[in-house]
């Protein structure tokens, strides 16, 4: 299973508002393709975020992400529940997060990662720090790494 946070991972952590109160988030299409490639390889994909917005639901729908969990205060609990429902261990879960509310989940999974611009407290506990920043290809970088490990290229 591959699970990701949203703000600061799939986005650049910016919150954009118009005068009329509309909210925007910028998603990276390459990250989206990384998620699609993981799905094609048979991984279950998930979004686990504290935010609750229609924008995130639309992005999950567009990418056909089967596990969308918004408004989550205890991310580890949700990830444990998903793992149990899909009959996998936490060691079979890769999770990428960038902020303090991700730390407990990051410590519990089999492979933890953070974008290059994750908070220092997060960068200290993860297995892998991406070269790319949040919203700038960190998810794609991790996806490609996972795919390489699952199916090494013939040399």
Give structural attributes.
alpha/beta; two-stranded antiparallel ribbon; six-stranded parallel β-sheet; 155 residues
Q: In what order do the strands lie side by side in the largest sheet?
A: 5-4-1-6-7-8
- Number of continuous helical runs: 6
Question: Segments where pLDDT lies below 50 for 5+ residues?
Answer: none
Order of helices and strands: EEEHEHEHEHEHEH
Helix content: 25-40%
Offer a quick outline of the entry:
By secondary structure, the chain is an alpha/beta fold. It is 35% helix and 15% strand.
Could you please describe the fold and organization of this structure?
This protein has 155 residues and is an alpha/beta fold. It is 35% helix and 15% strand. It has a 6-stranded parallel β-sheet with strand order 5-4-1-6-7-8, with helices on both faces. A two-stranded antiparallel ribbon has the order 2-3. β7, α5 and β8 form a beta-alpha-beta unit. It starts with a strand and ends in a 5-residue tail after the last helix.
């Amino acid at each position: 299973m591959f699970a990701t946070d949203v703000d600061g991972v799939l986005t650049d952590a910016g919150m954009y508002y118009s005068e009329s109160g509309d909210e925007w988030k910028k998603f990276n299409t390459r990250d989206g393709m990384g998620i699609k490639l993981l799905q094609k390889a048979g991984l279950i994909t998930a979004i686990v975020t504290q935010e609750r917005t229609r924008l995130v639901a639309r992005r999950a729908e567009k990418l056909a992400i089967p596990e969308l969990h918004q408004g989550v205060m205890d991310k580890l609990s949700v990830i444990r529940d998903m793992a149990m429902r899909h009959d996998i261990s936490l060691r079979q879960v890769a999770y990428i997060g960038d902020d303090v509310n991700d730390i407990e989940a990051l410590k519990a999974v089999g492979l933890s990662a953070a974008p290059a611009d994750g908070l220092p407290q997060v960068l200290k506990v993860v297995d892998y720090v991406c070269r790319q920043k949040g919203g700038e290809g960190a998810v794609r970088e991790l996806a490609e790494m996972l795919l390489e490990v699952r199916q090494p290229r013939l040399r």
